[in-house]
């Protein structure tokens, strides 16, 4: 058993990258993160007067692949939690839109208490719908997706766990995670709602992948089940 | 149960309702969670699920409460604060409040412990 420490604990032990010329700007930016910040989970404030509470509290996480983040868990940063519509806008409006992000980066918007990891208790029996987007669409589609989630447009009870936008070299990928991969009525309803809120053409190929399969092949977006 | 023991029955209340007449199929809202004529209650029968339509959420974007960033938002250059001074909008603003909050919190890393 090995304990992987977070970045503050790793500071002194971080592998030295001498000899590697950091021409990639995303590496430089990653290095700029202030190591003394508190990147542990902080609960959302209780909504004050005049705020519109959400059905669930949510947390925003950010991850970016870099040579020094050897595991996904290490790259995952808690950004903020929110409990109301206003608190959501407060955080969202002060974050770079996914379409303007550089490199191999992801935003994760998950219900408070659920870590955006396959192994989390809420996720381990679940899976996700995947939508691959051409470059240029990510910011708009991500906003439509999370507004639908926050506003409880999916109508599948407690099934939704969270949403992810992954900025990659060739394309950008949206994913919506739910608790029970085997619940076909739920996954079908989520798929139909996704098509509606994202204004996807009727013939869009939708891909689903269970987290059990992701754990087996250790990939997020390969070997998916395709539905037309 | 209560009537058997002679106690007065709890008086029920009608669920408030309103009738909307549709003259054409096009007047049906496109969203499952919206009722004709606009969403009546923001809760659903059998529960108190809080439902918001996209347009309503977008209106709240302009709320004064949403104008400043959360006090304790993690500072990530290029993501929640400018990559370089003056590059991104709202930069100075968010940088300041994040820094203020930062002084109050200790940098513990329990969150990132895991067994592998």
Automatic annotation (TrEMBL), chain A:
UniProt-annotated stretches for the region Disordered: 31-51
MF-aspect GO terms: RNA 7-methylguanosine cap binding; translation initiation factor activity
Pfam families per UniProt: IF4E
GO cellular component assignments: eukaryotic translation initiation factor 4F complex
Gene3D superfamilies per record: RNA Cap, Translation Initiation Factor Eif4e (3.30.760.10)
InterPro entries linked to this entry: TIF_eIF4e-like (IPR023398), TIF_eIF_4E (IPR001040), TIF_eIF_4E_CS (IPR019770)
Keyword annotations from UniProtKB, A to Z: Initiation factor, Protein biosynthesis, RNA-binding
UniProt record similarity statement: Belongs to the eukaryotic initiation factor 4E family.
Protein name as it appears in the record: EIF-4F 25 kDa subunit
From TrEMBL, chain B:
GO biological process entries: negative regulation of translational initiation
Single GO molecular function: eukaryotic initiation factor 4E binding
Record-linked InterPro entries: EIF4EBP
Gene Ontology cellular component terms for the protein in this record: cytoplasm
Disordered, as annotated region: 67-116
Tagged with keyword Lyase: no
UniProt similarity note: Belongs to the eIF4E-binding protein family.
Protein name: Eukaryotic translation initiation factor 4E-binding protein 1
Lineage, uppermost ranks: Eukaryota, Metazoa, Spiralia, Lophotrochozoa, Mollusca
